[in-house]
């Protein structure tokens, strides 16, 4: 039986995008401006951006910002930490009443962008955390984007929309486990000039 800590239904992501371009300021600021954030709380500083709200909107907003930044072919890297159930989490609850209609889906569904990703799932507070991780690796395998394990992470390759769907389902699958606090780290790269070995 899952025990919720405080207002643990809230999902949050703290993330940065790194465009490898002289135009990085413009790319970062326009990507942050061109996303519909009406169903999340969002704050940006000189290091990163934090998005909080219902899980589906947090994933929708992070994906859209990354696709906005990379859709014109620039090499962009995303580094993100997603969290749900952090003990003591409380601010931003107002956004939990929003419905689940995604505000950026019409935009992102039209963008086709190959990405290379490494992610790691941390189901905290339970001795059986490895079982939860193995179960969610099976979930991403079924979605056709899993590309093997590397030290400390799993690799996902493919279209960004499919990879984000797999990441979200691994996170949501882990939320349904006995773990009360889920953390997931993601490093995603688009348009890298370095081709993967074997391609
Ligand atoms: C998603 C995201 N949010 C914030 C930053 C931090 N940052 C670095 S340069 C810059 C623009 C000029 O201030 C900003 C906001 C980032 N990299 N990615």
UniProtKB/TrEMBL annotation:
Under Pfam families, the record lists:
Ykof
The Thiamin/hydroxymethyl pyrimidine-binding YkoF putative domain, residue ranges: 10-89, 115-195
Recorded hits in SUPFAM superfamilies, A to Z, give: MTH1187/YkoF-like
Protein name (database record): YkoF family thiamine/hydroxymethylpyrimidine-binding protein
InterPro entries, alphabetized = HMP/thiamine-bd (IPR015835), MTH1187/YkoF-like (IPR029756), Thiamin/HMP-bd_put_YkoF (IPR011522)
**Species of the source:** Mesobacillus jeotgali
């Amino acid at each position: 039986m899952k025990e919720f800590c405080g207002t643990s239904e809230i999902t949050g992501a703290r993330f940065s995008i790194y465009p490898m371009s002289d135009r990085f300021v413009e790319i970062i600021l326009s990507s942050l401006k061109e996303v519909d954030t009406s169903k999340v709380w969002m704050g940006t500083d000189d290091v990163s951006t934090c998005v909080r709200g219902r899980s589906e909107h947090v994933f929708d907003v992070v994906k859209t910002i990354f696709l906005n930044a990379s859709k014109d072919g620039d090499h962009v890297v995303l580094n993100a930490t997603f969290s749900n159930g952090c003990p003591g989490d409380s601010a931003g609850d107002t956004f939990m009443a929003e419905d689940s209609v995604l505000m950026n889906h019409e935009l992102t569904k039209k963008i086709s962008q190959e990405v290379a990703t490494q992610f790691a799932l941390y189901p905290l507070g339970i001795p059986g955390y490895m079982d939860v991780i193995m179960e969610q690796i099976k979930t991403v395998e079924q979605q056709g984007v899993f590309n093997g394990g590397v030290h400390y992470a799993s690799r996902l390759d493919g279209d960004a929309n499919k990879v984000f769907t797999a990441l979200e389902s691994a996170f949501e699958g882990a939320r349904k486990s006995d773990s009360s606090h889920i953390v997931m780290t993601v490093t995603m790269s688009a348009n890298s000039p370095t081709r993967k070995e074997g391609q």
